[in-house]
Amino acid sequence: MARALVTGNYAAGCAIARAGEANRNARGCAGGAYPITPQTEIIEFLRGFEFTKGRVVPVESEHSAMGVCIGASLAGARAFTASSSNGLTYMTENVFAAGYYRLPIVMIAVNRTLGPPWNIWVDQGDSLALRDAAWLQFYTESHQDIVDTILLAFRVAEDERILLPAMVAMDGFLTSHTQMGVELPEQELVDRYLPSCKIPHRLRADRPTTVGGMTWPRETQHHRREIQEAMERVPAVLAEAIDEFEAIFGRRPHGALSCEHTDDAEIAIVACNTIARTARQVIQERRKRGERVGLVKCKLFRPFPRAEMINALSSARRVAVLDRNHSPGSGGIFWQEVVTSLRGRPDILVQDYLVGLGGGDVTPELIGEIVDELRTQTTAQEPIWKARSDQDGSYKTA
To answer: In whole angstroms, what is the distance from residue 329 CA to residue 146 CA?
Structure first.
């Protein structure tokens, strides 16, 4: 594998392109393309890639971009796209359709704040707004993580036990536009890792059928139950995909959850994406001081790994969930999932912190302040808003 210094967008485009090219001996690949900051470079990379058997189709909107993916996938092709922010919400109708059609499309979501007012910086409210669509959702912390997770996403989504689309999220600008050294997989290895895409319910000329027709309540309930059962199989299929990835590529990607120093942790931080990288630095420094602090990095959001979360936080007595998102009238979205997972553990204090919304800085100093606050806290409060002061660089509870 070649190591290169590239942006996150370049790394994502490269991984998607090689996954699409790996299906050249089957029914090829296709994707819908519509640019939006900060994911435009991904679309540009894919448009410039010379597929042996595939096509990237420029369209007039994000809704149509997902429509192209739906058509391609129904024809049996490996399908993909990328979007961000209001582009994701504009394609919402077709996002839900792709999930309910059980089509293993992979989409990169470059997280950006939803507007108005308009803001191009990172906030996970765009991808998490689609949390009730029948899609797998992965969150990535680095350039290498985005490459590896894209390949994992294709492998899991296309598995006959799953057959659901997958969304892979990364932080806008913090990951998409910065450069890191990345092991870019060679095409031969990707060919070995990704078997030919086989969609059993694809449209066929020799077996005419329709999709998306009218159903009765009983059939709809059965359909939703089948999707739930497929979601419940994801952790086991993902574990298999990780084992196979390591065997072929020689490195082991992160799983649904990554735990660091949680075996004896009294205080644990739950975070994802680039915030997890910053939290890791804080925890390493605190451990050197003898403080029993740990980190749980949540990579898989849908399906949410409840059993794994319970095990990861088994020794903790205080948990801080760092949410770069906000559900109006409720609080942080990851916090809601963690609290639900720990509903049988009333002895664990779980506090939600809303941090970095709209692209605000989440620095080691801020996370250190949260750890210090949590140490003396005796009861859980309503979600706490943390913001950096523009005047003196200090942090305050908003």
So the answer is: 32
